[in-house]
Design a protein that fits this description.
single chain, 6-stranded mixed β-sheet, 29% helix, globular
Length: 108
Amino acid sequence: MKYISYISQQSHILKESDMESLLQKSRKNNSSIEVTGLLISYQGLFIQYLEGEDATVDDLYEKIRTDPRHRSVIEISSDWKIASSATGPWPITKWMQTKQKRSWDTGT
């Protein structure tokens, strides 16, 4: 297993409804390729941690780097071998902070 973490600027500030749509699609896609992780959306930034099989994580990160919703993608850390999942069984967990609220959402 491998993990990768990165930070990027959102190409535009996502509304909560846009974020929910992105999250639902990501959960479905990540489940099918057995990737888990955490997505943080904060003040126009994405901060994400992904884990799964080496090639799968690499392929997904390359898709993210070329996704038009992201600008200035910077890899924070990767290539560290991990024995088991740090995020649990959820395909993607979200943390979002707005002026009105802070929330965790595991999709369960």
